[in-house]
Amino acid sequence: MPSTLAHDCVQSWMKKVPEWEHKENQIERIFEFDDYMSGMDFVNAVAEIAEDANHHPDMNISYARVAILLTTHDKGGLTESDFEVATRIDSLVD
Amino acid sequence: MPSTLAHDCVQSWMKKVPEWEHKENQIERIFEFDDYMSGMDFVNAVAEIAEDANHHPDMNISYARVAILLTTHDKGGLTESDFEVATRIDSLVD
């Protein structure tokens, strides 16, 4: 498990995942789909990435809107793991 | 779409779903599982119920903990649909 990233390093990573919002100790991206089951397909694809990476984002589902939140709870902040998983999630839709 | 329930009617329904907590205009139940994929199996089962009922609860996934929140947004409160879906969700685990 990597350690938390310094501020300038977070800023550097944020440029690679510009669709994500940096909020205190976490990053968040909202994904909107045309219908509920398309959102659920996405949720299941994220779950596969999460299991593979052994790093599990919080997911908040509200009909076809899915919010993904990443942080490294064990470390109390953002680590490389968060940005690696964010990059993989982006590749599902972008 | 049924109309919102009067206070005494909500109280009556709450006795049928005692594991749920009544919070203002919604009801919530937290489900905890042994591992992440067990939680995801549950989420998918809830999604099937939601599609079948055309009534979609919010779901907040945090590792193996899944919070389900039900309200009827169109009506601004609790309706029979919420309690019918809650009962069906309970039947998945109880």
Q: How is this structure best described in words?
A:
The structure is a homodimer of 94-residue chains. The first copy, chain A, has 94 residues and is an alpha+beta fold. Chain A has a single domain, classed as 2-Layer Sandwich (Gyrase A, domain 2). The first copy, chain A, contains three helices and four strands. Chain A has helices spanning 7-16, 36-53, 80-93; strands spanning 21-23, 26-32, 58-62, 65-70. A four-stranded antiparallel sheet of chain A has the order 1-2-4-3, with helices on one face. In chain A, strand 3 and strand 4 (65-70) form a beta hairpin. The model of chain A has no long low-confidence stretch (mean pLDDT 96). The interface between A and B is medium-sized, with 15 and 15 residues.
Topology (SSEs and partners):
2 copies of one chain form a homodimer.
Chain A (H helix, E strand, L loop, with lengths): L6 H10 L4 E3 L2 E7 L3 H18 L4 E5 L2 E6 L9 H14 L1
Antiparallel strand pairs in A: 1-2, 2-4, 3-4
Number of helices of chain A: 3
Give the overall shape of chain A, derived from the CA principal axes.
Answer: globular
What low-confidence regions of chain A span 5 or more consecutive residues with pLDDT below 50? none
Element-by-element helix/strand order of chain A: HEEHEEH
Structural class of chain A: alpha+beta
Described by its quaternary structure, the protein is: homodimer
**Rg of chain A (CA only):** 13 Å
Q: Work out the number of β strands of chain A.
A: 4
Main sheet summary of chain A: 4 strands, antiparallel
Please tell me the CATH architecture of chain A by its name: 2-Layer Sandwich
From the N-terminal CA to the C-terminal CA of chain A, the straight-line distance is 27 Å
Assigned CATH class of chain A = Alpha Beta
The averaged pLDDT of chain A comes out at: 96
Under CATH, the homologous superfamily of chain A reads Transcriptional coactivator/pterin dehydratase
CATH fold type of chain A:
Gyrase A, domain 2
Strand order of the largest sheet of chain A: 1-2-4-3
Report the sheet-strand fraction of chain A.
15-25%
Helix content of chain A: 40-55%
